[in-house]
Design a protein that fits this description.
single chain; six-stranded mixed β-sheet; Protein-Tyrosine Phosphatase, Chain A; Rossmann fold; UDP-N-acetylmuramoyl-L-alanine:D-glutamate ligase; ten-stranded mixed β-sheet; 15 helices; alpha/beta
């Protein structure tokens, strides 16, 4: 396979996604010509065009003209017309996993993995390093609010990257430092059971360089077990979690809500207090995310004081408890949560920040395989909401086989008030009719449910 430096123009199929748009930005920053295509002209496509990256909406053979490498997103089927055209013209093609191996070659890689939290931790680490005067290359699975982007080609030898377990993508990386926030069964289209997920994470940490380190969350049973196994084989392990003791290198204690709408905690390193951090982000899970970032950046030589200050200034990443706005006293928040564990945690964070508000959850179930595999978890995941609107299932890369629907889900949820919606537009209309000053509308999902929030704000008239 040719080296990345040998390519002059890369065409990206599915360039409008979070991961592929980030790759496009890094390539452009390295001086490589980039172009791409996507089925939809979303916000990321518009942003890439502004930055000088040509994007065609729709897939067609002529789109790859001029490219000497065609890179395809994991969501693009093998029979895609642009991939077929590349094969016919004998233009090399790659998928994201093998391409990331090329992209990160020669760097000291900091790879952040986990079923939940990896986007926030990656964004935190990138923001801390930049605040400390470093210039890393980074790829985050979402826009970092304070940085205004999801990727950057830096001059340092560091490459901070969100490491995705989907289709074993993270096995293409060789980290200097790896983070495992948690391990939980997800992506049933890739992993038959939790056992296979754990094996994949075990293989991931085995790829850490001999001089490297693993930062793992002790509060998560499987992450701790993977970490202990790695340490038993001679690897450097830094465990982090809530509460002192238990062999933790980093501890978060005295967690409490603060007047910034976030969570405050005291950080301990090897049993010694190193600082109290007042985050702008709510939820105990964000305290753990910040602690992981603190552990990594301290390992990289950033003074703790600088890290604490950067964490307090961190305002989050797109679609992670992102406040879209308010109208007539109704606050609208969007979150990427699409797994039962995430949904419960985000509802808990909503109760923390907006304790006096009625919480109306608007859920867009994501992929039929996930809904079927995690059905029992979803049934009770919304107990923290006052009302739930269930949107049609977002198929993503899958095809609806007619065996499950939002109506069946709505009938099973144990939340107080549940209604099935026939469309995004119907959900918007229902919210216009039912919301009142003092309500919180919480959008949950990994699809396009955020459209409901924007349309609701437009219909009510933003404050």
């Amino acid at each position: 396979m040719e080296k990345l430096s040998e390519f002059e123009r890369v065409h990206i199929v599915g360039i409008g996604g979070a991961g592929m748009s980030a790759i496009a930005r890094v390539l452009k920053g390295r001086g490589i010509a980039v172009q791409g295509s996507d089925q939809q002209a979303g916000q990321l496509v518009a942003a890439l065009r502004v930055e000088g990256i040509p994007v065609t909406v729709g897939h067609a053979a002529e789109n790859i003209t001029g490219a000497d490498l065609v890179l395809a997103s994991s969501a693009i089927p093998a029979g895609n017309v642009e991939l077929a055209a590349a094969r016919e013209r004998e233009i090399p093609t790659m998928r994201r996993p093998e391409f990331l191996s090329q992209l990160t070659a020669g760097y000291d890689v900091v790879a952040i993995a986990g079923a939940h939290g990896k986007t926030t931790v990656t964004g935190m680490i990138a923001a801390i390093l930049l605040a400390a005067g470093r210039d890393p290359t980074y790829i985050v699975g979402g826009m970092v609010a304070s940085l205004g982007t999801n990727a950057h080609a830096g001059q340092d030898k560091l490459f901070v990257i969100e490491a995705d377990e989907y289709q074993n993508t993270f096995l293409s990386l060789t980290p200097q430092i790896a983070v495992v926030t948690n391990i939980e069964f997800d992506h049933p289209d890739c992993f038959p059971s939790t056992r296979f997920v754990r094996l994949a994470f075990g293989e991931f940490v085995d790829r850490i360089r001999p001089d490297g380190a693993l930062v793992a969350c002790s509060d998560d049973r499987l992450a701790r077990l993977v970490g202990i196994s790695y340490h038993a084989n001679g690897g450097k392990l830094l465990l982090y979690g809530q509460g002192a003791g238990g062999g933790l290198a980093w501890c978060a204690v005295e967690l409490q809500s603060n007047d910034r709408g976030g969570v405050t905690f005291t950080a301990l390193h090897e049993g010694e207090v190193v600082g109290t951090i007042r985050l702008q982000l709510p939820g105990e899970y964000n305290a753990l995310n910040a602690l992981a970032a603190l552990a990594v950046t301290t390992e990289l030589g950033v003074p703790v004081e600088r890290t604490c200050a950067a964490l307090e200034a961190f305002t989050g990443t797109a679609r992670r408890f992102e406040v879209l706005g308010s109208a007539r006293g109704v606050i609208v928040v969007d979150d990427y949560a699409h797994h039962p564990t995430q949904i419960k945690a985000v509802l808990g964070a909503a109760r923390q920040r907006y304790a006096e508000r009625r919480v109306i959850a608007v859920w867009q179930p994501h992929t039929f395989s996930r809904i079927k595999a995690l059905w029992d978890g979803f049934v009770t995941a919304f107990d923290g909401a006052d009302a739930v609107l269930v949107l049609p299932i977002y198929a993503a890369r899958e095809v609806d086989d007619g065996t499950v629907s939002q109506c069946e889900l709505a009938a099973q949820l144990t939340a107080p008030v549940v209604s099935a919606m026939g469309s995004l537009a119907e959900a918007t209309q229902r919210l216009v009719a039912m919301t009142a000053p003092g309500d919180l509308v919480l959008l949950l999902g990994a699809g396009d449910e955020y459209v409901v929030g924007r349309e609701l704000l437009a219909a009510l008239g933003r404050d």
